[in-house]
Design a protein that fits this description.
The complex is a heterodimer of chains A (208) and B (323). Chain A is an alpha+beta fold. Chain A is globular and about 45 Å long. Chain A is 37% helix and 12% strand. The longest helix of chain A has 22 residues. In chain A, strands 2-1-5-3-4 form a 5-stranded mixed sheet, sandwiched between helices. Chain A has 2 domains: 111 residues, Beta-grasp domain (Ubiquitin-like (UB roll)), CATH 3.10.20.30; 71 residues, [2Fe-2S]-binding domain (DNA polymerase, domain 1). Chain B starts with 5 loop residues before the first strand and ends with a helix. Chain B has a 5-stranded antiparallel sheet. Classes of the chains: A alpha+beta (208), B alpha+beta (323). At the A-B interface, strand 4 and helix 5 of A face strand 1, helix 2, strand 3 and helix 6 of B.
Amino acid sequence: MGHDQNDGKGGCPQGVSRRGFFTAVGAGALGAATLGRSQTPGAPPAGAAEPTKVTLRVNGRAHTVLAEPRWTLLFVLRERLGLTGTKVGCERGECGACTVLLDGTPVYACMMLALEAEGHEVTTLEGLMNGEELGPVQQAFLQEDAFQCGYCTPGQIVAAEGLLRANPQPTLEEIRAGMSGNLCRCGTYAHIFKAVKKASELKKVAGR
Amino acid sequence: MLPGFGYARPRNLREAVHLLSAPGARVQAGGTDLLGCLRDGVFGVDTVVSLSGVPDLRGIRRALDGGLVVGAMTTLSEVAAPTDVVKGYPTLAQGAAAAASPQLRNQGTIGGNICQRPRCWYFRGDFHCARKGGEKCFAAEGENQFHCIFGGDVCFIVHPSDTAPALVALEAVVRITGPNGSRSVPAEKFFILPETDYTRENVLTAGEIVTEIVLPPQPAGTRGTYRKVRARGSWDFALAGAAVVATITAGKVERARIVLSGVAPTPWRVPDAERAIVGRRLNKRTVRDAAAAALKGAQTMSGNAYKVELLRGTVEEALLALA
């Protein structure tokens, strides 16, 4: 539990990055906190406002964290698990920067309590990597130059992944509708739609 | 960060109703409206009672009479998916598909969609308006371009749901469970106007939750559609909309229900417009008559007069789509 994403295999080969360092410190503190709770006899009563132990499956790995009921899935992913690929945007379910997959379906992590994600499989941008390589949707966004500032891009990529899992060969109209929950203030929509089309081809070739 | 609250996830309906009887408890379905209200400080909560652990509330099943029963926790995506709802009740499926964005439709439920709080910017903002227990409606003399042209009184919200007008048009029944047992309310009577109570949008009393939506079987020859007009095509709340269900035999309208969205504090049924097409064929002339009848009694404010003409076109288009 509480392993830093940047330690161990598949991490940061040139040593510890600045972000990795802070994340590792945070994860250490969390590990201690979790341990503390598990040693306290008795679970918190139903409806208590105090932190609750929750096990989240994220990108195929189980993470046990102590979460306050008011913490959103977005907050826990970023601030407790160090998965900063999921971005904080509007925090009111309008922009899509925080899009993650819940059991393969796109949802806004800012509009979901972390406790509600228990028992589901969460996939973030980090989970779309192909080992050390970019996954097909990421590769397609790069090839089609589907971003300018890049802030909305993680959410766009995860939304595209969800769309393509449900509909592997979408038409342009289906792409426009399927991506309509993600805003891009740089206005790169035309490139984003091309990238989703490209991603559908790359996935077909890769057989995934 | 949201303000602090407790959380409970009951495993069955009885437990949920019991937990909701505590003062300060509020029900969570998909959570997309609740969390927004908490973040904006529209109201507070001591305990969030989540229904996500109550399995009986989710899913769509065939009723004995041939109709459908839609569990309150069924997501909008599931309601809009190409299944029995689309086949038998296209008005509802189109309403669900027109709501919000793909992500919100994956999270939001039909029960939550019909119980969501209004989007009025004064209600959502830092204004102690009438609906929040204050003394006045700030929209009446303020910015009211998205407010109602029918049914306003003390408060001038529009009902934000796209599925609610479809349910009223389909003569659906809302099943409710609370501390005093269960009851069924026709969708048409579920929503209440400000003149009845300007602090709430429906008949639910403390501790009550919507459990199911019952869709009655539709007579042969019944068609339906939902036309929604919004400020931008991708996703937004309705500026004006029309849910129509009509039974057409031998080219003539035998019965019809027309219910408007985006223009009143409840889904707004227009019986005069329905009468204008019953017994007639749907064509440009009859549709024009119906739209004119639908506009009767509209009362505009400083910023929303455009809704009258917008609504006229919306009703005409919705009816012509069934011709």
